[in-house]
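Quarterly update from the structural biology core.
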Amino acid sequence: MPNYIFPDNTVLCNFGSVLRIDLLEQILDGNGRWTEAVAAEAEQSSAYLGQLRRLTFLGAPIEIDDPKAIAHIEHVRCNVFGGLPFTTKHLGEAQTCYVLQNYEEFTGSSLWVTDDRDAADWARRNGLQTRDTMDLMSEGVLGGLIDRRAGFTLLHGMRQQGNWLRLPRRPDDLG
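Predicted structure, tokenized:
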């Protein structure tokens, strides 16, 4: 696993929807990080997914206060990810990609976990390592944190909760 792992709010909501934030914490193994926008999104989502109030294991949110960085992030948010002016839609994605591309501590040694396929495709085209919820579950299987059948069931449970994510066809697809 890379040095740092940045889950998007989609991933946090997936694990929260099946009441397994504890499993996400184990999989990240102290390497989870997040930006201030993702933290804000998770706080909003915690209104209906109470488990998202238990994300202290991601550490203090990374704040971005440089005006040039903020302008760049806003450009990417609106022009690449399709966010609208005067909203925060896609701000978490744009901030995370900026941090992974521009903060020496995270560049090259970190990955972004998202189930937003278009955003992940853009990130990969721009040299960022990406994974999705199913990949994290496979890491959990390989690490002995969950067996294949239980991981398969959880992923399908996430979908039943209304979340859109890549799914394995059978338990053996994990790990």
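Residues 67-79 form the longest helix (13 residues).
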